[in-house]
Amino acid sequence: MVRAEAALPSARPDSIQGLAQAIAKPAYRRLLIAEPTLRRAVPVLIVAFLLTVGIAAVVQSHNRYQQAIRTTFEQLYAASEVAVDRLNHAIEGGSADILDPAQTLLQRLVPPPVKAQDRTILIVGDSGKVFATAPAGALSASQAGDV
Predict the structure, then answer these.
(1) What is the C-alpha to C-alpha distance for residues 79 and 84, in angstroms, rounded to an integer?
(2) Contacts with 94 (C-beta within 8 Å, 6 or more apart), sequence order
(3) Cα–Cα dist 89/96, whole Å
(4) Measured in Å, how far apart are the chain's first and last C-alpha atoms?
(5) How many helices (H) and strands (E) does the chain have?
(6) Please, are residues 123 and 130 in contact by the beta-carbon 8 Å criterion?
(7) Cis (ω within 30 of 0) for the bond into 13?
(8) What is the rounded CA–CA span in Å between residue 146 and residue 131?
(9) pTM for the model
(10) Which of 1, 85, 118, 120 could form a disulfide with 138 if both were Cys (CB 3.0 to 4.6 A apart)?
């Protein structure tokens, strides 16, 4: 008996190897059959992924642009409301002398954060004539007529 085991020392490993091949061979054959399809599908999937990323980037950029426009509009609206309120309060309270030119009055009443934002503020009459600008001299005479 010892001699029989000595003669076939690899009988047991061969049976395990044979079992592994019996289990793996059908899956390997299916993989070989599907390989051409998978080779064609990989570039298509890569292109689809890149298109998805590109579309997401465009949508995000558009949303950020819209948000920036909305924020700027809200800031300008708030600044104009503050300036109008201060101007009305100055006129009603009598602190704005009738002789006080609109330019000096505007320079006094515009909030400092608005001046720091590098924005141009105009006091415009009903006819479209510009009475004052902040910062002073922001519009030339030819530009003032265009407003």
Answers:
(1) 9
(2) none
(3) 9
(4) 112
(5) 5, 2
(6) yes
(7) no
(8) 13
(9) 0.49
(10) 120
Contact indicator for 143, 122 with CB cutoff of 8 Å:
no
In sequence order, what are the residues at sequence separation of 6 or more whose Cβ sits closer than 8 angstroms to the Cβ of residue 37?
none
Closest CA to 106 of 116, 120, 93: 120
Higher pLDDT, 41 or 97: 41
In sequence order, the 6+-apart residues with CB closer than 8 A to the CB of 114 are 79, 82, 83, 121
- 17-63, pLDDT tens digit by residue? 666 667 777 877 888 888 899 899 999 999 999 999 999 999 999 99
Burial pattern 29-68, b for ≥16 Cβ within 10 A else e, equals eeeeeeeeeeeeeeeeeeeeeeeeeeeeeeeeeeeeeeee
Hey, what are 68's tokens? 């920036």
